[in-house]
Design goal:
The protein has 358 residues and is of the alpha/beta class. The protein folds into 2 domains: 17-164 and 320-353, Quinone Oxidoreductase, Chain A, domain 1, CATH 3.90.180; 171-297, Rossmann fold. Helix content is 22%, strand content 27%. The chain is built from 10 helices and 17 strands. The strands form 4 sheets. Strands 3, 4, 5, 8, 9, 16 and 17 form a 7-stranded mixed β-sheet that branches. A 6-stranded parallel β-sheet has the order 12-11-10-13-14-15, sandwiched between helices. The protein has a two-stranded antiparallel sheet with strand order 1-2. Helix 4 (165-177) packs across helix 5 (193-204) and helix 4 crosses helix 9 (305-314). It is globular. The structure holds zinc ion (2 copies). Residues 54, 56, 76-77 line the site of one zinc ion (ZN).
Length: 358
């Protein structure tokens, strides 16, 4: 056996308990001292170094993911270092970023590389895992993470940047769905964290012009991440002009706008999470048919796309550091949560640092 193998938790470097955010019941959370998770087969223990909160966490807390049972340790946008491992590819000390979808590996979708659509979603016994959703996540000092979710961070990528492994993959996948070509006019609707990653990646991949559409004070703040920013109220002047529209706002209104902005023969990628039950009205179908539009849904980050996104990050093609507006130690989670959910101080992403100041 390799020296990387550590047999037992409670050894010199791994404490038996750890600090974690626990969603205890719908609409209730607490910071708790809980048993440090023990990695199962094909898993490693990750010592979390940087971890962000996201709107999905608010939905989990609100009980909008019926598959998720309370109590639950959330956190799905994180990075850290391997602290226990019996896999030599990810030995102790390896710096890793996490992508959150792990497929069963054997269903028809997994065999296509579309493990984000795994037919065994939620069935842990098949090997499926959705990190921070159906299994515990990274808003804690440690997390047991399936090896299939790990990406070794390139040398010059910091832990803070590495926490974007999943998000950047989601953004890059949306652009790949839309078959962006060099020189094209790309419109991004929704200046949240993922939309901003899309805008940056579109520029990095050679878009001719990137227009960011949104609302309010945030637009001014993110001005430099696109060639132009436009308030959603003024968007009709771009009607029928975009080669590619990427939507990450998650509302029917944004989707209507997205379809209207595409030029004839253009492409529209819908990535904003609406949840179930939101219907689309007010679209003249001739816009789609006579316009020969491609309207594409985009879910998450299949086919190892997060690994390619990390290569762009390592090459300084995208800047995620400026999207993290606030930093907190894990023990200040309540303040971090309020800052994020109330968008205090123009919060875009809020980062927790479990290895510091606890
Ligand atoms: Zn997220
Ligand atoms: Zn599967």
């Amino acid at each position: 056996m390799k020296s990387a193998v550590r047999e037992s938790i409670g050894s010199a470097d791994i404490p038996a308990t750890m600090l974690a955010v626990v969603f205890t019941a719908q609409d209730h959370f607490a910071l708790r001292e809980v048993p440090t998770p023990r990695p199962g087969p094909r898993e490693v223990l990750v010592r979390v170094r940087a971890s962000m909160v996201c709107a999905s966490d608010a939905k989990i807390l609100a009980g909008r993911f019926p598959a998720i049972k309370f109590p639950h340790v959330p956190g799905h946008e994180f990075s850290g270092e391997v602290a226990m491992s019996n896999d030599e590819r990810f030995a102790v000390g390896t710096r890793v970023g996490i992508e959150v979808h792990v497929g069963c590996g054997t269903c028809d979708r997994c065999r296509e590389g579309m493990y984000t659509l795994c037919q065994n979603y939620g069935k842990r016994e098949t090997g499926h895992a959705h990190v921070g959703f159906t299994i515990g996540g990274g808003l804690a000092e440690y997390a047991a993470v399936p090896i299939a979710a790990l990406h070794a961070l390139p040398e010059h990528v910091t832990f803070e940047q590495g926490a974007w492994t999943d998000n950047l993959g989601v953004a890059l996948w949306a652009l790949e769905r839309g078959r962006m070509a060099g020189g094209e006019h790309v419109v991004v609707i929704g200046p949240g964290a993922i939309g901003l990653c899309v805008a940056e990646l579109a520029r990095a991949l050679g878009a001719g012009r990137v227009t960011l559409v949104g609302r309010g004070a945030r637009l001014a703040r993110v001005r430099d991440l696109a060639d132009e920013v436009i308030d959603a109220a003024d968007v009709t002047r771009l009607r029928g002009t975009a080669d590619l529209v990427v939507e990450f706002a998650g509302t029917a209104e944004a989707v209507r706008a997205a379809i209207g902005l595409a030029r004839r023969g253009g492409r529209v990628v819908l990535g904003g999470p609406t949840g179930t039950g939101v219907e689309l009205s007010g679209v003249d179908l001739s816009t789609i048919v006579l316009g020969n539009l491609d309207i594409l849904g985009s879910l998450a980050n299949p086919k190892g796309v997060s690994g390619r996104a990390l290569a762009l990050l390592a090459d300084a093609k995208v800047d995620v550091t400026s999207l993290v507006t606030h930093h907190f130690p894990l023990r200040s989670f309540a303040e971090a949560w309020q800052t994020f959910t109330e968008r205090r101080g123009g919060a875009i992403r809020v980062m927790l640092h479990p290895a510091e100041g606890n």
